Amino acid sequence: MLSKRVIPCLDVREGRLTKGIKFSGNENIGDPVKSARRYYEEGADEIVFYDITASAEARGIFLDVVERVAEQIFIPFTVGGGISDVAQMRDVLLAGAEKVSVNSAAVQNPGIISEGAEAFGSQAIVVGMDVLAVPVSADIPSGFEIVIHGGRKRMGIDALAWAKRCQDLGAGELCVNSIDADGTKDGYELTLTKAVVQAVSIPVIASGGAGEPRHMYEAVSRGGAAAALIASIVHYGTYTIRDCKEYMANRGAKVRLTW
């Protein structure tokens, strides 16, 4: 059985670490480079970096920040935000990332998933899914809809159907973020997480809502996720990576302990 991963997420706006609730009210809270180094030293399994306004502003990622983070950590590093073609994927990988995350661009041009997988391998392609709970309908039978551009644009696409298509196109991993739970610290949307896990055979990362180590344990045990993405609880110093992993290990979850 593979170890369950704990992955701090660095949402970056204008080169600064930022955090909001349900994709709004963001405030700058620190230096992403220093934070990445600290999480690496605490035992994070991976780091995820999102340039959260790149897509909405129709620009590329701030590669200088990516390079500075990559110089400080020696664990897998995923970068996303504004990536819309294979050339931009290559730029990010050359800047030091091991994986690229595509979200809005993949919904608008699904071919970018297969093109990226062919160029760099499926293991390098992560598809981020921002998902909103909506009434069940003929178009959205799961009750979960794909939203793009940082939660700004609903797409009328069922999240489970999209997850399966991403896998078929060559994605190596899915990061499933609940807009409803994002930043609330009330726990992950486990119904959504479990539904996506059951719909695909590739690893699924739970994202959105972690407020305490118990939520991470629930994501990997009840939700079946391969990893739990966290932000606020470590950014604000409420818990450390070690706190989270020790809680999970003490309840039977297999995690990588480095101390």
From TrEMBL:
Pathway: Amino-acid biosynthesis; L-histidine biosynthesis; L-histidine from 5-phospho-alpha-D-ribose 1-diphosphate: step 5/9. Keywords: Amino-acid biosynthesis, Cytoplasm, Histidine biosynthesis, Lyase. It holds the Pfam family His_biosynth. GO terms for cellular component: cytoplasm. It catalyses: 5-[(5-phospho-1-deoxy-D-ribulos-1-ylimino)methylamino]-1-(5-phospho-beta-D-ribosyl)imidazole-4-carboxamide + L-glutamine = D-erythro-1-(imidazol-4-yl)glycerol 3-phosphate + 5-amino-1-(5-phospho-beta-D-ribosyl)imidazole-4-carboxamide + L-glutamate + H(+). Its EC number is 4.3.2.10. The active site is at 11, 130. It is found in: Cytoplasm. Coiled coil: none annotated. One of its GO terms (molecular function) is lyase activity. GO terms for biological process: L-histidine biosynthetic process. InterPro entries: Aldolase_TIM (IPR013785), His_biosynth (IPR006062), HisF (IPR004651), IGPS_HisA/HisF (IPR050064), RibuloseP-bd_barrel (IPR011060). SUPFAM superfamilies: Ribulose-phoshate binding barrel. NCBIfam families: hisF. Heterodimer of HisH and HisF. This is Imidazole glycerol phosphate synthase subunit HisF. It comes from Candidatus Desulfovibrio trichonymphae. The gene is hisF.
